[in-house]
């Protein structure tokens, strides 16, 4: 293992110092909970009888005796969403393999799992970000019965895994493993899908033709195959050591995937306080593992959503990170993967080329990962450089390839796609923002053009269809932040802006909202802070203001203007963004939510008094 990179070491130490009070408070709470022993032994007979009433006779006896571990399952199963449908079969598999070793498992609770792919451009998208905090609270409720010795988190997609993580962190005295469903097999290519979307945006094909292409892409159970937030989640769980090694991108519905489910359940039981190898969540997640997750995002060109989610996840474990940490690490972490939207390949092709085991091995060898962290497999990340396979009916791990299987998809540290990471922080008189620079071609990474201010995503689309946007401009879409309307993703802007860019116009997007984890192609400064509703400058930009967005230099500014601080914010009617589709129920979230760089959380994790 190479000596750790100096920047990696200094950023980790800075995070450790910044987090000392909150982390110490968190660790004190978790250690106190762990020393109390199995909670099932301390509940009353009435409590225990209620907890076991629905179990079969054998499980009732095992729960009453208390000798074997009882594993709580928190699941995001539903059969509407492809990524979560396979999870329906998991509890029976888990219960079966655990019963064979004298252990038990119970579904502790379910959490909602909405899909941004379904709600893009719809009113429900305004609930998307806040669903993460609902999931976190639902996870806490699920585990609050104090009859579990460990837990399994069954989830995959955008807000689900971060929410499960935040809730799990508050029960960090337990061993907790994460268990995904795996991706669906490949459909039409991502380039073809993007081409058809742009054709539809230009009015060249019918809605039926668009639907046929989309259905050929999203076609079966399993996670969508582009490298958006869902698959970035799985990368992070792997690099943080919360998965069984190699779990992330094994296809749904395969024998190997079923074997991973079985072995994950057995590992959860093995690592409880009732066994010889106790590995609680709070020992797996520390400052080093959070830094590893940031590095993984940079090295693979991961989702911009994690400049919000990972901040919130870290705070749930008492660790305070900010965008400066992301930015500094980006300067030393090379981009090793080209997966859509910053390449043509999908995650199945990435996995075949060597996948995460290759990436993790390369980063460890280059001193760009903390390889000495604790994981659910024990000390060190070395097991995560191996690949799972079935030998007969038994799962085993073999060493990863030492060479990339496809240099157009995956490269070594010595020959990366880019010397710096896939995510960039922007600063300037407009505020702070982030951009997924790996998905933008170098020729489009700097733009200086007049602003056109839009009232909404639909306003952009309507003016595009009316032929009013054939010019160089920066689309400014304010009042899309968490306080305003829940910070929806503005994914539907990519096709029309992409069409204009292809015509030769210089275009970019500036917004205090989010883009999809699959965003790319057009330079987009997103998550702008302060948001417009917090008197942010983005809410004071006027048509014709010259905006400079420079992703290479990290600049976002109004050029030649020094009066923006004294300007009045433009008027914006939010009533239409706060009613219907259940949005009324989230008014409390909107009033309490923090800024994007603080994780856009609606509760106060990270304050030492709250730990």
TrEMBL record:
The EC designation for this entry is 4.2.1.12
Keyword Metal-binding part of the UniProt annotation = yes
Q: Name one GO molecular function term.
A: phosphogluconate dehydratase activity
List of residues binding [4Fe-4S] cluster: 157, 224
Details of cofactor binding: Binds 1 [4Fe-4S] cluster.
Q: Where is the composition biased (Polar residues)?
A: 1-12
Where would I find the Dihydroxy-acid/6-phosphogluconate dehydratase N-terminal domain in this sequence?
69-381
| The Dihydroxy-acid/6-phosphogluconate dehydratase C-terminal domain, residue ranges | 408-600
Name what cofactor the protein needs.
Answer: [4Fe-4S] cluster
Q: In which pathway does it act?
A: Carbohydrate metabolism; Entner-Doudoroff pathway
Record's catalysed reaction(s): 6-phospho-D-gluconate = 2-dehydro-3-deoxy-6-phospho-D-gluconate + H2O
User: Which residue ranges are recorded for the region named Disordered?
Assistant: 1-23
Which keywords appear in this protein's UniProt record, sorted alphabetically? 4Fe-4S, Carbohydrate metabolism, Gluconate utilization, Iron, Iron-sulfur, Lyase, Metal-binding
* Gene3D superfamilies in the cross-refs: IlvD/EDD C-terminal domain-like
**Stored SUPFAM superfamilies:** IlvD/EDD N-terminal domain-like (SSF143975), LeuD/IlvD-like (SSF52016)
Regarding protein family, the annotation reads: Belongs to the IlvD/Edd family.
NCBIfam families the UniProt entry points to = edd
Question: What job does this protein perform?
Answer: Catalyzes the dehydration of 6-phospho-D-gluconate to 2-dehydro-3-deoxy-6-phospho-D-gluconate.
Protein name listed in UniProt? Phosphogluconate dehydratase
Source organism: Hyphococcus lacteus
